[in-house]
Design goal:
alpha/beta; 21 helices
Length: 642
Amino acid sequence: MNKKFYITTAIAYTSRKPHIGNAYDIVLADAIARHKKMEGYEVFLMTGSDEHGQKIEEYAKAKGIEPKLYVDDISSQIKQVWDSLDTQYDKFIRTTDADHEAAVKKIFKKLYDQGDIYKGSYEGKYCVPCESFFTASQLVDGKCPDCSREVIDSKEEAYFLKLSKYADRLVKYYEDNPDFFLPAARKAEMINNFIKPGLVDLCVSRSTFKWGVPVDFDDKHVIYVWIDALSNYITGIGYDTENPSEQYKKLWPADLHVIGKDIVRFHTIYWPIILMALGEPLPKQVLGHPWVLFGEDKMSKSKGNVIYADELANRFGSDAVRYYLLSEVPFTQDGNITYEAFINKFNTDLANTLGNLVNRSIAMTNKYFGGTVTNAGQKVALDDELYDFAEKTIKKFNEQMDSYHTADACETVMDLVRRCNKYIDETMPWVLSKDEENKPRLEAVMFNLLENIRLISVLLTPIMPKCSEEIRRQICCDNCAIKISAVEKFTVGTPSPIFSRLDTEKVLDELAREMEEKMKEAKKENEAVNAVTLAQIGIEDFMKVQLKTAKIINCEPIKKAKKLLKLTLDDGSGSERTVASGIAKYYTPDELIGHTVIIVSNLKPAVLCGVESQGMILAADIGEDDVKVIFADDIPAGSTIR
């Protein structure tokens, strides 16, 4: 019986269509799963969508539809993106699935009945995008430590999970299972940043919105994301507090959770403690992979720097997208993507190196031998060197894939491709073909090339499944054995380009025009969502904002930031105030000095490019790309605006 391997991705949040950074989860998990299948494992890969929460409720309201209709649409988009990348998941779970919701209710009730969940109240800082509560000490520059966005003060009745009760057991599990964290450095982050300072009991219900799994015994509350979403890893395979399924008994514990580094805390602290409280085994490993950044920035639809994986796959092919992601994100460091980098990688590795090797080898086999070559057993030192390189490649590739270093594994395969191209230059088939006496040697050369191309195609199976199949189709060989000389004869077909070289300038121009349109759409969508959010503000919140007039007595550019100006203000208090404002595109310093502006005077100071900004000035968006500062020149500095 084959050994089981249960692997999961983080379930994608259904606020919006996932961008290419979100898609890295499923591509990485799929590559690992495919390789495990090649090694003989019985693999089960589960992915899905996370569909509850306040943010979903707000997005649905902005669209003027019910939350369920909204998440139905986004969840289908997630599946469509995953499918466009040729991922082979065994189950796609939705947290609105009836069986999942029923199991989550039972989990919550069990934890409550045994005293691990209790009722209390919460007062703290809340980040709506992350749906997370934080204490003031956990904030970074007054903002969410996870996404760097603004937080709001929130107070509400809630249920809490006792985390501190299980802290010692959790640390012991870390010590007894040294391979639990991948990369290993994540362990120190969790212990030093969260466990040593003392685990604060976790808020696991909400009462300020309704879009969630209701608490059976208290209809004012819905079950919060930590128990709802995290439990999918067991509910999706049939967990039940009273009668777990045979599938659950077979698959759990998970062999690997594949997640982004930003949610390692949830999967290595909260999730293990939930499982401990339930009396269930803990997952064997958690792989907290780095991010895929756009250039050097985290992708954001509001910034207009979002790349969608399905659109990229439709234009360049799913294998090209998979290869880029798997080869450009190192094990411990963030990767990045730009259209220019993607096109360069496509042309260099896929078209010039791999595609050229396959095309020219098949073409020469047809030209010199009518398409058929056999293994005559003739070898010289150069051939032995090539096969030795191939043997080492196979061993190295498997080790790298088993340790989830996919970027290294991609490079290892590509090294063999380069070695084969070098072998062509060394043997010079076009020279050998000129002398009939060299025909046996020429046939050996062509056979050696085709056999190594076959091996390359097999190794590429987890990385680029379509390309792998296409290579074997063109060399007319379906043998997938990962060993040398598994084939004695090749009869090749007609060569056709696997990857055609791209015209960089032309493609970039097309993509730039498309990006401009996306930015316009994103702006409209953000305005709609913000309108809903702003409509919910209470007078007590508005009254917290202090608006005052201040006169600009000096203004200068900030060297490190093209968009920022440093304003020195007289706010009527007798001392100067400094504000950094992103209006350099619209005003020169001379146009501002002497004017009186309106400022938010009680905004928490923030350091921007080395300048401490002690407030914010008011300005208006009046066009597609036009901003006007609101001047109040006839009002004395220091006046309160009501």
